[in-house]
Amino acid sequence: MSVLSTIKKRFSPYSFDKTNVSFEDIESAFEAARWAPSGYNNQPWRFVYTSRDHNKFEKMLSFPVDANRKWMKDCGGIAVILAKTQSDYNGQLDPSAQYCCGLAVGQMLVEISALGLHSHQIGGFHSKELAKFLRLPNTVIPMAMMAVGRTSEEPSKDRKRKLLKVLVLR
Question: Mapping DSSP to helix (H, G, I), strand (E, B) and coil, where does residue 87 land?
């Protein structure tokens, strides 16, 4: 059972149709993230999800930089992706926390696509202000924000990926 066809369908749209995406609509995506591998099973990923119909949606839209806010305003929900950098295993800095967080989000993206939804992650946001708003301890860092929703946008026809022989040394 290959998931490659689902992975290949995934793209990051710049337009959404303003339809609300409730937590229940994408709960299985968070469940997919929950099952990601991590060092010492530390599971350092954390998320904050705000659906379009939530009273804090507009506040969450204040953190992306202007260029991202322009298209994110129409999404159905916003996820904040966080990495807990202190290990539950030994209390020390977890050097793999951000990597493991990325693994969890990768699995989440596959499930979002399988649900017929779309997502677009951003690194362009005001992380310090967001961390302050969320009252995060200094051991939890905002990694990215993700718009989730429905779109009529199609992936670019000239979408390209590097060849495997460039990416994989043998």
Answer: coil
Domain ranges of the chain: 14-151
Beta-carbon count within 10 A of 161 CB? 8
Please, what is the Cα angle at 101 between 121 and 80, to 5 degrees? 45
What element of type H or E holds 121? strand 118-122
Measured over the CA atoms of residue 86, residue 34, residue 127 and residue 10, the dihedral's sign is: positive
CATH 3.20.20.70 fits 14-151, yes or no: no
How confident is the model over 16-71, as pLDDT tens digits? 999 999 999 999 999 999 999 999 999 999 999 999 999 999 999 999 999 999 99
d(CA 110, CA 60): 24
Residue 121: per-residue pLDDT: 98
Name beta bridge partners: 80.
48, 145
Distance CA 133, CA 135 (A): 5
